[in-house]
Amino acid sequence: MGQAQRALDDPQGDLFGAAESVGPAPYQVKPEHVRNRLVDMVETMRGASAWPWSASRVKLFRETVWPYLLGLLDEAEAADWRAKLDAEAARLDG
């Protein structure tokens, strides 16, 4: 068997190096950034007499954005923010 054939028969190693040698750790969302975003949303909602966003954006916030952001906080703080969002959403829905 030739050299080229032996090279093809060898199991392929990790193309990107070992896990411990792969650059910096992935970005972790900072809780203060999550809080700032939630503050902006709640303040916008409080300042409005009707939903300040389109129906599709409200649906996106309710189904995706708010659960994601709240999932980044600890349970107690997330429950507090959820109550604030729910109260304003109920007011705007009414």
Report on the structure:
The chain has 94 residues and is mostly helical. The protein contains 4 helices and no strands. It has a domain at 31-94. The chain has helices at 3-9, 31-46, 55-71, 75-93. The longest helix is centred in the last third of the chain and has 19 residues, at 75-93. The relative contact order is 0.11. α2 packs parallel to α4 (75-93).
List keywords for this structure.
0% strand; 94 residues; mainly alpha; elongated
The proportion of residues in beta strands is: under 5%
Give the SSE order as H and E letters: HHHH
Computed Rg = 24 Å
The assembly state of the depicted protein chains is: single chain
Number of helices: 4
Cα end-to-end separation: 79 Å
DSSP helix fraction: 55-70%
Which residues sit in consecutive blocks of at least 5 with pLDDT less than 50?
none
Number of strands: 0
Q: What about the largest sheet?
A: none
Mean pLDDT: 87
Furnish the topology, listing elements before pairings:
Blueprint: H1 3-9, H2 31-46, H3 55-71, H4 75-93
Summary, kept brief:
The chain has a domain at 31-94. Helix content is 63%, strand content 0%.
